[in-house]
Amino acid sequence: MAGACLLRALGRLDSSTYLELRDSVIKAALDEPQAVMVDVGGLDVPAPSAWSVFASARWHVSTWPDIPILLICPRPEITDQISGTGVTRYVPVHADVESALVSLVAAKRPRRRVRIELPRRLSSLRGGRDFVAEWLTNWSQEQLIPTAKVIVDVLVENVLRHTESPPVILLENADSTVTIAVQDADGSPAMRREAGAGGAYRTSGLAVVGALCRAWGSSPTPGGKTVWAVVGPENRL
């Protein structure tokens, strides 16, 4: 399958290397390949519970970008150890790359993705709304256009207001769900800010996003961050 990422994990997996390995897998998934495959045949894992590192990585990317993570291991004794921990409920293990690729093809969900980089100016607010409306119409998801336009408006405005980078919109459709994501070059995580000047209460844009979507989050990327929101039929306006 074109676009799958293959990592090779070597050395000892324990409490001192757990986070580094987990974050490496998450980083690979955030680049949005078709899948992340990790060859674990060269790992030394003294404590079987450490295999949970791969389940943890999968949980972090399960909502967005929802990239499958698979383990590759030709050694049956290690495969049995991994299976005994319960990790394979979330991250399957395959004997080789070929069988992993076959499983991906069999389980592949149709996903449609488009991307646009907008200039750093206020007219990009309208440009973002128009982009979302055009593609959701093309994908026969017109019922989600009002919700998606509000969300993309908030996310693009936040990039223009709080960063020095141009906003990059990523739009994805899988089954009946739509993901609206906006990337920027600022590594600071997106946060809800609800306290106004002088102690006055003000609802933040991200609070509005949270009320309109199934799930939202802020994920670090090598060049900054991606703020994303997933909407489904229940989020229609």
UniProtKB/TrEMBL annotation:
Gene3D superfamilies: Histidine kinase-like ATPase, C-terminal domain, STAS domain. InterPro entries: Anti-sigma-factor_SerPK, HATPase_C_sf, STAS_dom, STAS_dom_sf. SUPFAM superfamilies: SpoIIaa-like. Residues 1-104 form the STAS domain. It comes from the Bacteria. Pfam families: STAS (PF01740). This is STAS domain-containing protein. It comes from Mycolicibacter sinensis (strain JDM601).
